[in-house]
Design a protein that fits this description.
single chain, alpha/beta, six-stranded parallel sheet, four-stranded parallel sheet, 10 helices, 16% strand
Length: 294
């Protein structure tokens, strides 16, 4: 069996097109232009690339960017003051603080300070609780992207046996809650799981988010399973260069799975597209207008 490739680039481009159309309609019909503030503290090279890509996507979608860059020496009180200003600014509908933060700043304090209505990362404790309770709210972008990708391979996730490899607050836990909301039967695996391969072999849908390169092997998969690979790992190659691989051994898995996301080009592009979607939804909620049916 050779798996069908779930093309995140194409799917995310379609979603971003729908978001851009929604932004145009909001501007034309309601005079609303969604605004997103991305806050970067320090000069982490990877974070700078992420922020640059997010800001470019915001502009391309027709939204207003309100980016803020602060030096490595920024204290927690100074960052919290900025968050307070962005919370109070009606033009800013979404706030995202790029992680990781410098060691002198407690990330949990910063996340908790963001207005939950503007928390487009979906990390605020209130939004986490709403997700766990099955109530509407802003949800994390990468897990949302995983669900949307899985739904391109299946019209419904209802009744499927889903296995999530990884229990982080960023991906593993929220994507498990979203799968439950889709009426899937969910198992969360982690470093203490006994006979992990056997658990994975039960999965109709496997989501790998453990942060270990090519950790999930092909023989771990149920034939025909759908595999969503969240991992982005840089590994060395000959000549002193490096390459990007996922958490799944792609070449092996593609011979067993029914459908699989590549790395790169799978989940990654969906994360930014879902950030734009969250920002539009936040803007609609704050202005008390119906959210677009995307």
């Amino acid at each position: 069996m050779t798996a069908r490739i779930i093309d995140g680039k194409t799917i995310s481009a379609d979603l971003r097109g729908k978001v851009t159309d929604a932004v145009h309609r909001l501007r034309r019909d309601r005079g609303i232009v969604p605004g997103l503030a991305v806050v970067l503290v320090g000069k982490n090279p990877a974070s700078e690339v992420y922020v640059r890509n997010k800001s470019k996507a915001v502009i391309e979608s027709g939204m207003h960017p309100f980016d803020r860059q602060m030096p490595d020496s920024t204290g927690e009180a100074e960052l919290l003051e900025l968050i307070g200003e962005l919370n109070a600014d009606p033009q800013v509908n979404g706030i995202l603080v790029q992680l990781p933060l410098p060691k002198q700043i407690d990330a949990q304090n910063v996340i908790a300070a963001i207005d939950p209505a503007k928390d487009v990362d979906g990390f605020h404790p209130l939004n986490v609780g709403r997700l766990a309770s099955g109530l509407p709210g802003l949800v994390p972008c990468t897990p949302l992207g995983c669900i949307l990708l899985a739904k391109t391979a299946h019209t419904s996730l209802e009744g499927m046996e889903a296995v999530v490899v990884g229990r982080s607050n960023i991906v593993g836990k929220p994507v498990a809650q979203m799968l439950l909301a889709e009426s899937a039967t969910v198992t969360i695996c982690h470093s203490k799981t006994n006979d992990l391969a056997a658990v994975c072999q039960r999965a109709d849908l496997l989501i790998a988010a453990i942060g270990k390169p090519e950790f999930v092997r092909g023989y771990w998969l149920k034939p025909g399973a759908t595999v969503i690979d969240v991992g982005i790992n840089r590994v060395p190659r000959e000549g002193g260069k490096s390459r990007i691989v996922g958490d799944v051994a792609f070449a092996e898995a593609a011979q067993v799975a029914g459908a699989i996301t590549p790395v790169p080009g799978g989940v990654g592009p969906m994360t930014i597209a879902c950030l734009l979607l969250n920002t539009v939804r936040a803007a609609c909620a704050q202005n008390e207008v119906p959210a677009p049916g995307i």
